[in-house]
Structures are given as C-alpha cells and as structure tokens.
C-alpha cells in the first residue's frame, strides 16, 4: 500500500506545481492559478506569498510570474557540467561551419536536457533552448546517448518514461528502439528523421569521458531537405571533428 506523503512533501509539491503553472500560463493572477490547479485561493495565496518573499516569483499588480532567480540556479547547475564548460565554444564553431543549429545534450533522470545550443546567422530557428527537456528516443543526440548506456539503464529509462509519440515517425516500440540503437553502435552516429518535429532532421554523435563512459552528445539539426544522405556525410565529418576536440579537452582539463 502506497503511503500518503507527509505534509512537508505535499507543501513542496504544491509550490512546484504553482511555479510550473506560472510558466505554462506565462504569468497569471492568483485566481487563475487556483482554478488551473483546483486549489483554494487561500492555499495558493500562501504559497505565492512565500515564493515572492524568497524571490522565486515576482508580482506586478495582480499578476505573478516566475523570476530570474531560476536563471541563476539553472546557470549554476549547467556550469557544474564539465562538458558544457569545454564544449560551448566548439558548439558555436560547429554551428558557424555547418550553417545549422548545433546542440549539446546530456541525460538527467532519464530525460534529455539541452545544455547549450547555437544557430548560424541565417539558420532556421528551432524550438530548442538551454534547459529544454526532451525524450531521449525522439532526438539524434538522445539516441546517441542511449546507444552507449548499459542495457539495464536503458530498460530503467523506458520503464520510467516510456516511448511517447511526437510524430508519425517516432519510435514507439522497444524492439524497434533496440534495433535502432544497435545500428547506431555499428555506424557510430545517430539520426532523427522527423521523429520529434515534422520537417526537421538531425544527426549526432556521443561524447565520452576518458573512462569511455557516455556523458552527452552533440549534433546538428535543420530542415530535412537540407540534411539528405550526402550532406549528412559531410556534416558528420564536422561533428566528428568537434567531438574529438571536446573529448581531448575533457581529458586534459
């Protein structure tokens, strides 16, 4: 029988629900938050008052919004990853050279998290930004990471997150995913062919530390028409070169 969480845990969960609601609604009045979460106005008011006092929420007239305090916390979390410290300048160069969106992705708690992204001046804008969480199975960097994780870890991630569909091309069965991961190990790179966003294709390779453990992945993404089979081979040369530089920096930093 599952035990009911204690009061302190419920309180924390409600505060987080309120923060996520403010983000989802792009700012909201107290009554809007209460209605969205089906909570009493008084309960939401108490949480919002505390969050405002601690600086995590700001109030403008009667509208509450998430504050920049989270930017400070997020930047701290990101800066702790050595792959970000040594890789961001290389991602910038990769974007310039390929004229595509270049990305650095890591795995956290079974999800893919974009730590850094760069876009060429005239590149097509995508819905990618630092901190964005995505399913590992729907992106090329995510699949590159999965391919180099132990099988038991992969199974644990699938048990936790499943294989949700984003487009008709998304991999949604375990057998198909493991077949894809075996292919990635054989060829050394991963491709997402309109599996997260229609019309967008990406190619990526895994980044490993000096002990051979996968710690992230880098890749480029763009319109499917611009990343056909032949251009993908040329892009792979640039991506592989960037991978080697980052891994050397990691080994000697």
TrEMBL record:
InterPro entries documented for this protein: GAF-like_dom_sf, HTH_MetabolicPath_Reg, Tscrpt_reg_IclR_C, Tscrpt_reg_IclR_N, WH-like_DNA-bd_sf, WH_DNA-bd_sf
Name assigned to this protein: IclR family transcriptional regulator
Residue ranges of domain HTH iclR-type in the record: 9-68
Gene Ontology BP terms: regulation of DNA-templated transcription
Annotated signal peptide: none
A Pfam family: IclR_C
Organism, as annotated: Halocatena marina
Start and end residues of each IclR-ED domain: 69-252
MF terms (GO), sorted A to Z: DNA binding
Keywords: DNA-binding, Transcription, Transcription regulation
Membrane-crossing residue ranges in chain numbering: none
Family annotation (PANTHER family): HELIX-TURN-HELIX TRANSCRIPTIONAL REGULATOR, ICLR FAMILY (PTHR30136), HTH-TYPE TRANSCRIPTIONAL REGULATOR RV1719 (PTHR30136:SF35)
């Amino acid at each position: 029988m599952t035990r009911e969480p204690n009061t302190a845990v419920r309180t924390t969960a409600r505060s987080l629900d309120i923060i996520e609601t403010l983000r989802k609604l792009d700012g909201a009045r107290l009554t809007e938050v209460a209605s969205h979460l089906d909570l009493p106005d008084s309960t939401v008011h108490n949480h919002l008052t505390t969050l405002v006092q601690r600086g995590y929420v700001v109030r403008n007239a009667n509208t509450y919004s998430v504050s920049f305090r989270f930017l400070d916390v997020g930047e701290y979390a990101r800066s702790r990853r050595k792959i970000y410290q040594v890789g961001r300048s290389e991602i910038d160069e990769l974007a310039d050279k390929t004229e595509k969106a270049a990305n650095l992705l890591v795995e956290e708690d079974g999800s893919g998290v974009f730590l850094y992204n760069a876009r060429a001046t005239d590149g097509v804008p995508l819905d990618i930004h630092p901190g964005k969480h995505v399913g590992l199975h729907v992106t090329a960097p995510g699949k590159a990471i999965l391919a180099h994780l132990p099988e038991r870890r992969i199974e644990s991630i699938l048990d936790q997150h499943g294989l949700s569909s984003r487009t008709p091309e998304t991999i949604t069965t375990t057998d198909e995913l493991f077949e894809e991961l075996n292919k990635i190990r054989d060829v050394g790179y991963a491709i997402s062919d309109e599996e997260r966003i229609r019309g967008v294709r990406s190619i990526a390779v895994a980044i490993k530390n000096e002990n051979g453990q996968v710690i992230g992945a880098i890749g480029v993404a763009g319109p499917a028409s611009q990343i056909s089979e032949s251009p993908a081979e040329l892009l792979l040369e640039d991506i592989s070169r960037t991978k080697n530089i980052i891994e050397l920096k990691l080994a000697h930093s």
